[in-house]
């Protein structure tokens, strides 16, 4: 099951050239670009691991793409997302975020039903990937 | 857009299109002397222009190596030229942003193990798409200290210089003899640098010209006596140690302005005109220590 989240989630995955163009757009707006990664695909998992610090003083996308390459080399089997942080007063939050890397195999989610009092049912989802411990998920 | 039917291209139109003529003319106008440097920059600019046209005709074989080394004594305009170089490369489309990141050893080399690589990488990332100017590059390499981290910075630098020639142009600068030694101990650098440019010292009349230009920029000027005194000042200062060409001239002028201001204030200054306020007199220059420190060359 192909996980989607953030900007461009209805498009096919962006190519490196397209990512680079997006980074350049972020830089032209004065946003700090950073990369984050995780191997827990649950939609409510918002806090991902940071790959280095946000890059506050870049002029050109090539610098960020260098980091992305490094990050993919280290964590190519996980989800990696790009974040553009706007530090201007009043915003101080992410303005853009989208996936730039995903595992080869995405096993998807199981739906769990919990039966409760009466005929109530509680639902939760659980990724098949998280059955294995952190760090060894998505490995063959 | 400049092609005609026969597939001919007007180089002149290309040059105008890139706005390169303006940059070169500006260089010529604003930088005094430095003939060999200007000639070399024109050569490089021409090469890049031709390369640009070739690229349009899909004749090009990849980006030419643009890394440079500037050697010369202090104050001969290396940093100024590097800034212009960034503009020229940008206009010709060989760097994407055209900014200059100027660093020295401290910016590249960390204090402890594990500190250096991120630091060097930070700088490289910052300079991507522009020009990285490393002043006094030989300090990166300290053979006398075997635990020095400069060597690792050099390796990272070399790797990026080789692999990301499209993203970054590196300019190394420093004094001639020490750069020579640096290249000898790091042969990798020499082979990756295409353009070695030597900055000559300024002549006395060039230094005077520089002084007059600097003053004009600050809305000051020499009186006749002041100018004459400054000619003598230059001759005396050049003979002394630690002479840093244009930088020494700038410092001398700053001190002269200081004395001129003090002269005006201490003379009561009941009715000063704009002219008084922008005039450097002979006395302002002759009060310099330079004149009593070098008895053999001096008259006064």
Care to describe what's here?
- The complex is a heterodimer of chains A (140) and B (300).
- Chain A has 140 residues and is α+β, with helices and mostly antiparallel strands.
- Helix content of chain A is 20%, strand content 32%.
- In chain A, the strands form two sheets. Chain A has a four-stranded antiparallel beta sheet, covered by helices on one side. A two-stranded antiparallel sheet of chain A has the order 5-6.
- In chain A, strand 5 (109-115) and strand 6 form a beta hairpin.
- In chain A, helix 1 crosses helix 2.
- In chain B, helix 2 (20-30) runs antiparallel to helix 4.
- The termini of chain B are far apart.
- The relative contact order of chain B is 0.12.
- Mean pLDDT of chain B is 82; it is low at 1-5.
Mean pLDDT across every amino acid position of chain A: 93
Low-confidence regions of chain A: none
Strand order within the widest beta sheet of chain A: 2-1-3-4
Give the N-to-C terminal Cα separation of chain B: 65 Å
Largest interface: A-B, 12 and 15 residues
Q: In short, what is this structure?
A:
With 140 residues, chain A is of the alpha+beta class. Chain A contains two helices and six strands; from the N terminus they run H-E-E-H-E-E-E-E. Chain A is 20% helix and 32% strand.
